[in-house]
Amino acid sequence: MSDTTNNYGPVVNMDGGRENIGINYGTVGGAPHDAELRAAVDELTRLLGLLRPHLTPEQDQTVEEALPVLTPDRTTLRSRALVLASVAQIAATAGTVGQPVADAVGRLLELLG
Fold first, then answer.
1. pLDDT single digits (tens) 76-105
2. Long-range contacts made by residues 82-90, C-beta under 8 angstroms, separation at least 24?
3. Using N-to-C axis directions, what is the helix angle for 81-93 and 57-66, rounded to 10°?
4. pTM, to two decimals
5. Rounded CA gap, 18 and 84, in Å?
6. pLDDT tens-place string over residues 34-61
7. Are 22 and 70 in contact (CB under 8 A)?
8. How far is CA 98 from the centre of its chain?
9. Distances, alpha carbon 33 to alpha carbons 28, 29, 76, in Å
10. pLDDT at position 29, please?
């Protein structure tokens, strides 16, 4: 008997790791994303990478789970506003070191309208 696996959409297998940021879909096969939104998402992702060493293990886990959600797609990000709120809350509790992340989340939310 053969092993038949039907995969519909992307399949990602990860064994451990740290600071995994998800899949970069780019613009292949779809309309180009807003450059300003893409830049805001990239900046937030970069700043989260810098913040992570200052977080508790629980906060770091929340950020780890949030990273794949951060895509330069307005509809997707609007539907995942709770994740952005969680990231902003973590940044706020981190104090001064988290302020750039909180600012980046604010800029991203402004772009989403």
1. 888 888 899 999 999 999 999 999 999 999
2. 84/108, 84/109, 86/62, 87/44, 87/48, 87/62, 87/63, 90/55, 90/59, 90/62, 90/63
3. 150
4. 0.69
5. 20
6. 889 999 999 999 999 999 999 999 999 9
7. yes
8. 16
9. 11, 12, 12
10. 41
Q: Are 101 and 48 in contact (CB under 8 A)?
A: yes
Task: Give the residue carrying structure tokens 């740290």.
Answer: 18
Q: How confident is the model at residue 21 (pLDDT cuts 50, 70, 90)?
A: low
C-alpha span between 85 and 64 (Å, rounded) = 15
CA distance 77 to 36: 14
Spatial CA neighbour of 91 closest among 57, 68, 63, 67: 63
Q: Identify the residue whose tokens are 């990000």.
A: 77
Rounded CA-CA distance 64/113 in Å is 25
